[in-house]
Amino acid sequence: MSRFLDEIASPGDRWQLPSPSRSADSLALALGPGWDALLAPGEEVLVDAPDAGILHARYLSEACALESPGFAGLALARPERTWYLELVSSQPLTFRLVAGDDPQPDVPTGVVTEKGVPVTFAAQDWEVLKEAFVPYQRFALSRRAAELAATRGFDQLISLPLLRDVELYEHQLRTVKTVLRRFRGRALLCDEVGLGKTVEAGMVMLELLARKLVRRVLVLVPPALVEQWQGELSHKFGLDFVAHDEPRFRALEREAWLKYDRIVASYHTAKREPHRSAIASQQWDMVIVDEAHHLRNRNTMLWKFASALNKRYVLLLTATPLQNDLEELYNLVTLLQPGLLSTARQFRRTFLRRGDKLAPRNLDQLQGLLAEAMVRNRRATVGMRFTRRFAQTLPVLPLPGERKLYDEVSSFVRASLRSSTQEQGQGDARALRPRVGLSRMALIALQKEMGSCSLAAAPTLERLAEGSETPKVALRLRDLAAQARRQVDSAKAARLVQLLRDFPDKMVIFTQFQATQDYLAGVLTEVGEPPALFNGRLPRLAKEAAVAAFRGGTRLLLATDSGSEGRNLQFCHAICNFDLPWNPMRIEQRVGRLSRIGQSEDVYVFNLVSAGTLEADLLYLLEAKVNLFEMVMGEMDMVLGNLDEEREFEDLVLDLWAASEDETDFHGRLERLGDELAAAKEAYLRQRELDERLFGDSLVPEG
Amino acid sequence: MPGSLERFVLEYVESVGGIWEEVEPQVYDVMMPESLRRELLLGPVEVARLAFDPEALADHPAAQLMTFGHPSLDRFFALAQAQGHVASVYLPASNLAPHDLRSLVRRCLQLAPGLELEIGQRRVYHFRAALFWFEATYVSDEKEQDIVAIGVERYYGRPARHLEQALRSTDPGSPPSLPYPDAACLPLAQTYALARHELLRSVQVTAHARLAELQGAMRRQMARVSAYFSDLRAELHERQGRAGQDSESVARLLEQEHALEREEQARLAELRQKFSLQVELRLLNVLHVVQPKLKLQLYLTRPKGAPVTVEAIWDPLAQTLEAVPCPACGRPTLNLALNRSGQVGCQSCFVRAGSGPT
Questions:
Q1: A22, A324, A463, B286: which has the highest count of C-beta atoms within 10 A?
Q2: Helix (H) / strand (E) containing A301
Q3: What contacts A344, CB < 8 A, 6 or more positions away?
Q4: Rounded to the nearest 5°, which phi and psi values hold at A113?
Q5: Lowest-confidence pick of A197-201, A424-428, B113-117
Q6: pLDDT tens digits for range B184-195
């Protein structure tokens, strides 16, 4: 016997045996850890066992147990008993087996607190208590699983570790907590533009998902924002959403709305059959509507569609909740909390003045009610510095070959669009149907590619030539394609190289086309400026590597629009638009990769345009009439939303161009469009002032 | 470096005898026993691919996405929790022979003037405590859960608030160097009952705060609903007035009025239900914590009189004396005195009794 036993124990001392100590057929009595220090392997001891008398046992070191044939008859594994080994004497070494009773506790399964809250205890607690011990590592894993699986209260946001490439600001955290705790997931988010409503909505959704309160989510957005939302939700929040216009979704038709749990869709598509009834028949845990000012009128198809959706949680995002009439607020709030603003008639009686639909009565009362459903953060109160943008247009004189090719292709495209089947609508040409065999989409793509660089258009020209049913047209297209292939020099590329010499800092160069990207990559590498390449077709890791290289030593990032949504490029503060999308929201989105909340430096925007092209005219319009590049991220959509126009902006521009007899005619039409845009912008600025007067700071969340 | 969710899943895979290999950041191939693969909905293939980044699915379309809200991840949680709810750990046996223990103990005690302290027998025992983790679910129209840890030391039967912290600063997997005998220990059932009592105190506070919020919201919403339906009825009455004697219109409007009443009652009942609160408590895990401590015999003496023996426990990890139960009132105290009869107790007891400490 080890001397330690005499030192640490005296007769009467007990050791609790591990539970269960042994199985019915085992000859060994487990002792627990550490006994090697007290007993030698094989050492003999005496054990006084109940109903068995004194048994001779020996110590098994490898099992930390005592073994005796006499143990075979002992029934020790009974959950209501705890067994002890008690030291009787050290000479000879004698122990006694003693049982302690530990019956199931006699405790009530339910109580009621002093304020009447019923509290119930699970009946299985005792079974848990009497379970066998497991190794600590498995126990720790069980603990962690319980922590991760718990549906926490909203005081503690559990999704923060899941965010990626997102810097959360105080006002966003307060908004998320307010929406979850006070508004219970039904809210109108009306932050001023550029303050991160998307992130706020994404955070609310992620919190509800992480708590398993939400599974099926539908995000309804303007068509131009579908890809952007999908990219941001994936990259920033780690959430896989399918877009309604993806092939895998379209292939399933109506069934797709049932099969997929997380969908981003254009609301123009969603509100129409056959989608409308398919969506309305589903139960949605959460619906998010971006640019929700499109829901201001409750007599519209879109409002009725939104109202009819079966939804538990709903977020409406808009920087401009009202425009012409306070009742627009009523229409939005009623989608969230029917009855909060009473009936429409009562609302008008209580809050509207005769003769002025925008001047409220009982403003304090109205603000008090709105504060139960609406959040509005303002740039002036979020305590952040917003940097400036400096835009510079660099007009480029095309090379003679480029000029000739551009004019010829443009003539072809215009003629193809104009000499198509029939015109629809009245007044100006609207939605011209293209010639059979040459789709409108292909012609638009071709015209855009010509605005980018000649080489970019070559593959399209070749494809159109192959697909053309008219030999004469096919011949013409092949000739144009050959010209494009021969045009290996680009005046815009040369100007870009010049720009890079003049501006020595990091820069993101955007182009719409893979072919242009490939071409420019070669040009830039040749002049000693090999860029990091980023496009939608790169594997995920290659995308990460490209951004990492750009963040590191590589000066230039050459990117297409697709695939960069959600990427944080704010460490750079210069952007070059090598070509220009026709939709100014896409231009704004490019600039917004750098110039957004959190950017600490002023941002420089360089626009390369070939003189005498549609892009040059468009850019002039956007700069002169609405100061596009000085607007805050998100404001362009506000302005476009004020246009009385159902078509997408780029379709509008294309139709004007196609319908024009010549460039002078086109400039005139564009001028009129520019005036409409300017008026739309004025209307937006008036709206902003109105929001300021109406809401002030009354809807800033406290968290 | 893998995030917490990834680490959890990979550790679980290892714990069930599986193996994993990183294919690329946030994408892993895992091999697990077939029975578990089925339970985890990973499909029939021997090697399953898991992705923790949705952007990886484009490159790995057959991968199972592991993110919140996905059934696969919920299954991992459920199976990991079922692995084992109870374990035992030994805290290290350090500082069991502190230098000048008498002074250390004396500093912890507040003795009545004139009392001297000596330490007699000191022996090391394994003292047991239990750390219970309960899941508290607050159910109203939504469900929120808290996990509440309640520690109970089983010698005196008191709350042990320091246990979780003590565990963090040790390696819980280490076995003890010596099997010290066990100190007397409350039965597990009694310990559990004490933990429940503490749990109820904690949960009650949270429940009442939530109830106040809910009742406030309910009152506001019920008032709003009542006002809304009152407005609707007023508008209906106006229409009734305009309907005049047209019996068909009158009948229709009357029916609408009844429908409004029914709907109002239904909405109010719905609100009462929505804003009611109940709490469900469930034991998730129990960790038995065994710590070697010193059981001391303290002798309290005064200039004239026989020494009085008090038993006390010295915690070598916390480096403190645990409060002793006052022999008179039973409350834990470090504030000891002897009365004229030579009985030991807390000074408050003697002041209350008027027998006064000496």
A1: B286
A2: helix A301-308
A3: A327, A330
A4: -70, 170
A5: A424-428
A6: 999 999 999 999
Residues, chain B: 358
Q: What is the pLDDT of residue B10?
A: 93
Q: How far apart are CA A121 and CA A541, in angstroms?
A: 49
Phi-psi domain of B2 (left: phi exceeds 0; alpha: psi -120 through 50; beta: other): beta
pLDDT at A424: 44
- The answer on pLDDT for A646 being more than 80 is no
Q: Is B356 on the interface with A (CB under 8 A)?
A: no
Residue A144 in contact with residue B8, Cβ under 8 Å? yes
Sequence-ordered alpha helix ranges (H) in A372-469 = 400-418, 440-452, 454-467
| Structural tokens at position A79 | 């959950």
Q: Is B65 on the interface with A (CB under 8 A)?
A: yes
Q: Bridge-partner residues for B312, per DSSP?
A: B296
Predicted confidence (pLDDT) at residue B340 exceeds the cutoff of 80: no
CA nearest A559: which of A490, A570, A523, A569?
A569
How far, rounded to the nearest angstrom, does the alpha carbon of residue A666 sit from its chain's CA centroid?
Answer: 40
Q: Is the pLDDT of residue B71 over 90?
A: no
Token digits for A577? 């638009």
Q: Which CATH number fits domain A489-695: 3.30.710.10, 3.60.15.10, 3.40.50.1820, 3.40.50.300?
A: 3.40.50.300
CB contact under 8 A, A117 and B211: yes
Report yes or no: A192 and A377 within 8 Å, Cβ to Cβ: yes
A659 close to B (CB below 8 A): no
Q: Contacts of residue B84 in chain A, CB cutoff 8 Å?
A: 131, 133-135, 138-139, 142
Q: Hey, where are the domains in chain A? A: 1-105+134-150, 160-382, 400-486, 489-695
CA A585 to mean position of chain CA atoms: 18
A90 in reach of chain B (CB within 8 A) = no
| Distance (Å, whole) CA B81 – CA A146 | 6
Question: Best mutation site among A16, A59, A66, A139 for testing chain B: the one with the most B CBs within 10 Å?
Answer: A139
| Nearest to A191, CA basis, from A601, A643, A591, A597 | A597
- Smallest CA-to-CA distance from A420 within A408, A432, A403 is with A432
Q: Count of residues for chain A?
A: 703
> For residues A546 and A184, is the Cβ–Cβ distance under 8 A?
no
**Tokens 């939302």 belong to which residue?**
A229
A156/B contact by beta carbon, under 8 A: no
- How much is the pLDDT for B278? 94
The CATH number of A1-105+134-150 is which of 3.40.1090, 1.20.5, 3.30.460, 2.40.330? 2.40.330
Are B146 and A339 within 8 A, CB to CB?
A: no
The answer to whether the A160-382 and A489-695 domains have the same CATH topology is yes
**C-alpha separations of B196 from A106, A454, B149, B156, B161 in Å:** 12, 78, 11, 16, 15
CB contact under 8 A, A128 and B286: yes
Task: Select from B56, B76, B124 the Cβ nearest to the Cβ of A8.
Answer: B124
Residue-by-residue DSSP string for B111-179: E-TT-EEEEEEEEEEEEEEEEEEEEEEEESSSEEEEEEEEEEETTTTEE-TTHHHHHHTS-TTPPPSS-
Contact B211 A115 (CB under 8 A): yes
Homologous superfamily, domain A160-382: Tandem AAA-ATPase domain (3.40.50.10810)
Flag whether residue A82 sits within 8 Å of chain B, measured between CB atoms.
yes
Q: Rounded to a whole number, what is the distance in Å from the CA of B56 to chain A's nearest CA?
A: 6
Nearest to B144 among A119, A153, A210 (CB): A153
ipTM: 0.87
Q: Do the beta carbons of residue A53 and residue A59 sit within 8 Å?
A: no
Q: Are A185 and B179 in contact (CB under 8 A)?
A: no
Residues A605-639: b if buried by 16+ CB within 10 A, e if exposed? bbbbbbebbbbbbbbbbbeebbebbebbbbbbbbb
